[in-house]
Leucine-rich repeat-containing N-terminal plant-type domain-containing protein
Amino acid sequence: ADEDPRSNLVDGSRNLYQRYALAVLWFATGGSDWKHDLGFLSIDHECDWNTPFQHFDHSITPMGTSCDAHRKVTSLTLQTIGLVGSVPAELKLLHDLKTLSLDRNELENMEGVEQLDQVEVLTLGYNKFVEVLPTWLGTMSSLKTLGLSDNAFTSTIPTELSGMTQLTTLLLDNNKLTGNLSLLDDMPSLREVFLQGNDFSGWITNDFLANLHDLQVL
């Protein structure tokens, strides 16, 4: 973070760690080549490292960081801007982060996500992950949405995912996953499940369907 104009912040400043984490992310994912300049490493407060982004439904949300009233980063959205490489472990310093959306980039390694156990929304779809679906995802007990669509994840769905008792949306479509889907019996909070485009065997059980009173999409 030597290029950061505010790098002389005194140790103990409440935003020092989150500023450092975001700077590491910028360097680790090729920030100088991002498709949009979001102000990362600028003298502006890190809560202002963003730009308005208009979605297909014409709603507008910040692309980059979003913060709460205490200037803590609660959301990090970096979609379709050309991230490469790995998600850095330093993101664990964003203690108030609830949403991490890094869809439609060129990321290849997600190990840096492992310690973000407070995150509620994690979407990493349409990247270049070619790996076994990590068992540590099951330790992210706060997750409500997990989106890993259109990568090349392999193996079966880890049994550890049954520990995600608050999960309502599971997007695993268009990967290279195998095995049966009996694990879904232990995830009654699910409301949206996308599984197509894999090599699953067997059938979704009647127990799964009977328990999912709120299921809207399958």
User: Anything to note?
Assistant: Residues 180 and 201 are 5 Å apart (CA to CA). Confidence is low (pLDDT under 50) at residues 8-12. The radius of gyration is 18 Å. The longest helix spans residues 16-28.
